[in-house]
Amino acid sequence: MTPTPVSHADLVSASAAEVRAAIRSGSYAGHTAGLAAGKLQCNLAILPERSALDFLRFCLRNPKPCPIVGVGDSGDPSLPTLGHDIDIRTDVSKYRVFRNGTLAEEITDITDVWQNDFVTVALGCSFTFENALLRSGIPVRHIETGKNVPMYRSDIALEPAGQFSGKMVVTMRPIPEAQVAEARAISGRFPQAHGAPIAAGDPAQIGISDLSQPDWGDAVDINPGEVPVYWACGVTPQNVLLDAGLPICITHSPGHMLIADVAEDAETTILKSN
Fold first, then answer.
1. Residue 188: which of 105, 247, 70, 267 has the closest Cα?
2. pTM confidence score
3. Do the beta carbons of residue 201 and residue 222 sit within 8 Å?
4. pLDDT tens sequence across 6-18
């Protein structure tokens, strides 16, 4: 039976488990910005066990773009520290499958490509701290306009580990100038979700030439009196994995996150339980 489609608006008030159920059933395949407020959203990197240790080293050396919040057992699609019923093969609304350094396909279910040696690494996502910004009256433009957050390649070099190296990807949010300091302080309380911004103002300072042309996501307007503010982004490891040319690896598609059952501010518990 073909599942009944649901929209982003239909899921705004849904729980994390309800959003995952809609994704798992095939009813929803859209982005997850603004969904399951108060719950941790996660970027994903799924790769063969033989490469996982170097990748974990890379993440630990680059915690701003790659904050580890969960690690699965080899071959196990569950992530019990993030949710008791998570099946990583079905519970993300869109995946990217890379083969030998090339994007092979974007799919909504990876059951057929799952391997017994896969290790899942869950990384924090900036969608998490957006809820805190909104609660404090700081506007988040892409949520206001129903878009995906704009993401850009920067020229910020990362600390390498084994076969993994590259440049940081950043997200951008226009923030009223009078609220930039508050946005910095609020997001800084979420190190598991990239923490405080890495830059603000002129995009050229971090190697971005045109904010109207994001590399991923959707362009948003920057209104008079607003400052573009940049945060480290969990799409960074996608680029790093792509450059490493692994025979196979899988990530989420940008903006399509795993939504966990744990609270967005529960990073200490998560890390202790892994």
1. 267
2. 0.85
3. no
4. 999 999 999 999 9
